[in-house]
Amino acid sequence: MALWTAAEAAEATGGRATGDWEATGVSIDTRTIAPGDLFVALKAARDGHDFVAQALEKGAGAALVSRVPEGVPDDAPLLIVDDVQTALEGLGRAGRARSRARVAAITGSVGKTSTKEMLRAALEPSGRVHAAEASYNNHWGVPLTLARMPRDTDYAVIEIGMNHPGEIAPLAMQARPHVAMVTIVAPAHLEAFDDLAGIAHEKASIFEGLEPGGTAVLNGDLETTPILEAAAERHATHRISFGEGPGNHHRLIEALVRDGTTVGTARLWRTQVHLKVATEGRHFAMNALGVLAVVGALGADRTRALMALGTWAPPAGRGTRERLLLDDGVAAGTIDLIDDAFNANPASMSASLAVLAAAQPQDNLGHVGRGRRIAILGDMLELGPAENELHAELARDPAMKSVHVVHCVGTRMRHLHAALPDEKRGRWTGDAESLVREAARIVDPGDVVLVKGSKGSRVSLVVDAIRKLGHRRDMPEAEL
Which residue range or ranges hold the Mur ligase N-terminal catalytic domain (predicted)? Predict the structure, then answer.
């Protein structure tokens, strides 16, 4: 079945279609384009019009353009519009308007993408789910997700992010969610905001897009919770809070973090449930509570959602844990690698360090003799004028007491390196590439290694280097 016909797309965008084409998908990248996709020639780092001919050669059903590019035949299937970004937004609005899906939108300073994936998994037993790809949560990612929504979708999950004030509300109004969730408000993007309250007001603006009768789901344990609650009062018909405090509608009573899993007890309104996610971190259990609130508000099956969460693990780079069998050239034995190298701010750093602190290294496996908890931390970006102090303050995080060695990457992380006690201070390098060359010397069998940093710090290169020291080994069932 066609996702978009030429006539439908032209009506949605106010554009002019050449030919009577059909598109089975929507793409912005010729590297991943599939035959039948509508290629959207966005202008970003490069002008997408330069790739239209390539997209058509790869089998694109048509291209959304503001001009006919050079090298494109006169009879090529095109949708010609005044502005490609505006047209993509129109296509997204039309995709949302024609859908019967129940829609959820998620934002927050930490955990947007992992919570989006958690909600996707929780909803799948109840129907056909459409969710944003990767971290497609900005001015082009949200309309692209909506434009890609299949006609027969039952539930849609839209991730909404921001870098500057005023970005979330317009995207929420495009998504028009029935339920909107704020995971947490924490210091992130502070260079664009005066203070944490400013971030909270921006996050709370997601509720402005709620459909009539909509539900606001929010973290009830925050310093800025009153800001979220005030916005929910203005824009939502229903409000559900989650957290550990006794006043929350969904309350986490207990959570135990073990190798490869987090299990706990929670109370959903007056119903006590056993909660499990197949990854480590109290914060994952907390967000699972919010997910269950969203599931209930969407009218999906909460019991099936609980069962699905029991086997859920985060996507790569967002806290996944794997066991690596090291080659004999390094040393015989295994290490546990926690890959959290996609994003970082003080709140997510603290959560990841808590996971590391709870992990159990293995003794008597390597040259060191004692298994260690090792943190490899890259710069946290976009923290504003207080960034140096925020990096140094990590040395006082309670979890640091249980970390044996901390290696630091980046100019900002040098402030943490200087603040660490001598016995914990590992290597400092100005860039990730320098630490990559030392990967074999900083890990030893029996270690548990956390790699965490903002994407721009490129500490994912260190993750790749550590993986290349050996190969993945599935963790035994008893250890999960």
Answer: 24-88
